[in-house]
Amino acid sequence: MRVAQLLLCYVLLEDYSHNAGAAITSDIIHHQDFTLDQNTATLLDNNVPSFATPIGNVTIASGRETFLSCTIRSLSTYKVGWLRERDSMILSLGTRTVSNSQKFGVSLENARTRRNLTTGKNDEESTWKLHIKNVKITDAGCYMCQVNTVPMLKQLGCLDVLVAPDILSTGTSKSEVIVKEGDNATLECKASGKPDPVVSWRKEKNSILIRGHREQFIPVNTSVGERLELVKVDRKQMGAYLCIATNPVPPGVSKRVYLRIHFAPTASVENHMVGSPVGKNISLICEIEGYPKTINLWKRGEQVLSINSGGRYESYERVDPDEEWKTTIELKIRDLQISDMDEYKCIAKSSMGEAESAIRIYGVTDSTLATTVSLKKLNFAHGNSLMMTTSRRISTRKSTTLFYQSTPIIPKNKKYKLTTTTTTTTIIPRVPLTKDHNAFKHNNVYSNAKINLNCSINILIISLLFLIKYFSLFN
Fold this sequence. Notes:
It comes from Aphidius gifuensis. By secondary structure, the protein is mainly beta. It has four domains: 2-163, Sandwich (Immunoglobulin-like); 168-261, Immunoglobulin-like (Sandwich); 269-363, Immunoglobulins (Immunoglobulin-like); 370-474, Immunoglobulin-like (Sandwich), CATH 2.60.40. Helix content is 9%, strand content 46%. It has helices at residues 2-13, 36-46, 453-474, and strands at residues 50-51, 58-61, 66-73, 80-84, 89-93, 96-97, 104-115, 122-132, 141-147, 153-167, 176-180, 185-188, 191-194, 198-203, 208-211, 217-220, 223-224, 227-230, 239-246, 253-268, 273-276, 282-291, 295-300, 303-305, 313-319, 326-333, 343-350, 353-363, 370-374, 388-391, 400-405, 416-420, 424-429, 439-445. A hairpin with a 4-residue loop joins strand 4 and strand 5 (89-93). The termini are far apart.
């Protein structure tokens, strides 16, 4: 620093004959801060230049251009120089740039005459600007403006550089994190910047699920911190997470980390028995859950029905757009034949295991009809027994006949007795009460029975018997 100041002072003074014999001593280059008051006193006493205003400090974001201003009164024939305090690097002498770097430049602006109220004289003021282009964090620090007076005038201006956030590769999770369901997962994100950035986590779709009291999931929109801790991960937590780093310097930055959760596949169907008339189209649907992505297929016995096999058998596969671990597979059979009535299995395989579920197809007629008898339309004495009979047509496949009271199935207790014969099914309420005036419904489950004329005749006979009983009570 001492050598640089000596060199700068020498160069500045060499062009001035009235300063040619001046001795440059250590007192000249001694680190000394001259305030405006000191400069004014020098001006009054020695009629030499002085600083009109402090340089001040400048704060700028990296990558931009900035400048430091040094305004001087009564410069006259004296010269101005700039140097960097940190390493004593001379940057300019007068309007000439000494540094080879294109980063620095000097300009003279606002040369004007102003009346000095203290002295009553007109003083000329000039502003010397040190321009710094494409500012980097390494450019931060203090810069010195000097005038080659005796003693030398100097003042400092400091540059503070703000840096936009940046996500570091070291200490940050990779773009894909894989864990098994039930294990713990940690997503990490390290960021740099000035000032220090704030790091937060968000999920690309939906909310982040965090386990709370009693391990229940609590949805949160944002989790602040470099680490996102997920305890006993569940398949519902699978997806893309965004690490976002921000500070006052735009723009913020983000990194996408995809959490993949591996678990064994499962296969499930809504109905294990599906009936359809011959000649119709039928669809078998199976829900698959599993990750990694499963290989899905349909089997009939040992025969594999491949995806899009064509012909009367067609298979489709749909992945849930929001939950990629869910897949729906469908087997469509066109123009159902008697030979198609069999058991079909949906099978899912992955590196985590294998799962299957079965559906059996059985034949039915075009429709399954039901007989409904309303006790409200029948008159019977409170407390007496009542017998209801319905007949059904026997199909080639075994059927099950059930009675319903409104919607629920008739309970098996002492109050109701259900008997079945070859041609008829009878329900006998032993002690019918007024609250039993609900509709009783008979339905042939898994059968192709139809209501025939006998059922209507039996209902008519029951109605007549109750009418006779009713009138006999009043006579």
